[in-house]
Amino acid sequence: MSKEVKGKKYGRLYLETYKRSIVSEIESEGHAIKMVCERHSLSVNTVNKWIESYASSTYFEQKKKRRSRAEKNKIVREIISGRSTISDVQLKYSIDCRETINSWLRAYKNAEQELSDLQDSSVIPEKQLQLTEMQKELEMARLKIRAFEVMVDIASDQFKVDIRKKLGAKQ
Question: How would you classify residue 140: left for phi > 0, otherwise alpha for psi between -120 and 50, otherwise beta?
Fold first, then answer.
């Protein structure tokens, strides 16, 4: 049988103290299992089994945590703006799977695209609506002008006074 190597192995088996240290490292780094596994050259499946055995109850509560739409959008905007990378966000917000963040990015971009398409398509009906309103206002103004002209004509016929403004200046 081989002896303990760097405090982690005894033969083919890992020591319990080593397993607990790996699990506590994962808990402290915010559930970045894959990163810890790569750092220590361990299998993700092996470490997941260790987590089931040695992780604290708070770890499991946080793992099942659902994020609100606002929190997801905040994380995505942080990545899109360039302030953080996906790996940084995984550590900062305790997100296990990179694909989770990628799916949030896709959903955010799709929603943004739909919103811009919707705004573009709603601009045309708005302009059309404004145009028809302005045409109605113009027609009403023309009717008012015609009504005033008729009133002036009737008044000048009844009172025998020329009410219309004379064009040209007096000299």
Answer: alpha
